[in-house]
């Protein structure tokens, strides 16, 4: 009898201990307990953000975007949403952002349960929301703005989750007639007027080139400068992957995002762009005199321009053969000129004489294409901040 009484008390104690841990770590905030996890339902009016920002927000709370692993858990989430103050659409952690396009949860848990619902219109949308009206999940563009649902275990003290480790792409090379910057390959189309097309035709043409081909997405000022310095060859503006993305939700924010669903972590809009309004806009790299390389929001279904496709570099492609150059060793060729950076403190007069000794002059910057080339040329030297700030050019000494 004593043995049975001891086991009974022990089991009650264990059950009480688990319940107390859940209560302690979920109660007292906005977190809601269900079984062994805590859930944070952000309200529609409080936090509407992109999928990437939603995952970052959940990580700051010691959690991840919601992963769902059973019908019972899915029903709990939907029933909580139906209480009225949370909104009827929320980001969950399901996405197909991996290179193989297989579904994955942002918390790396197994995809062992799915509740996808059909969508009338689906083009390259790689992040998922849970949708109360359909009582299931459906894909949306990752740049759209919805409130997140976060989830964390109930039996651990919540601490911020570090950002995921970024694995650099394998070193590779580009196919013939493509140009390379870091580990991406680019090709410009539309040098002939008859090859200039509307945005959708440009997108489809890039997709038709093969898997992992798309209109270009830009993620740094260096990549922006590289694409700008090569735009002169096209003779016209070029469509890029930035476009207005839409939701069928009434009153949804006006949002622009990359067609490949990559993170919008860099912008280079020209002044006044994108303009407000209800037109469907897509972005082009500007060829115009004043704003070379800046992004212009233009009419996707009316305007015709060239376009830039991208693909990852390929480790199986052999390195390109060295190109012959008309420039001396230590100098780089761009358009019809040779350029050399001299790391030697000099007066303006001394710098000009040094350039004359090389058979040239201090650089004159004639347009935005050349400016972009010089920006990346100087960046390739890994200059310190002070070295980069004071440079002579052919006009005068300037502080940049």
UniProtKB/TrEMBL annotation:
SMART domains attached to this UniProt entry: CLECT
InterPro entries in the record: C-type_lectin-like, C-type_lectin-like/link_sf, C-type_lectin/snaclec_domain, CTDL_fold
Superkingdom in the source lineage: Eukaryota
Protein's recorded name: Macrophage mannose receptor 1
Signal peptide: 1-19
Record key words, sorted: Receptor, Signal
Coiled coil segments of this chain: none
Domain C-type lectin: 34-151, 181-301, 334-400
UniProt-listed PANTHER family: MANNOSE, PHOSPHOLIPASE, LECTIN RECEPTOR RELATED
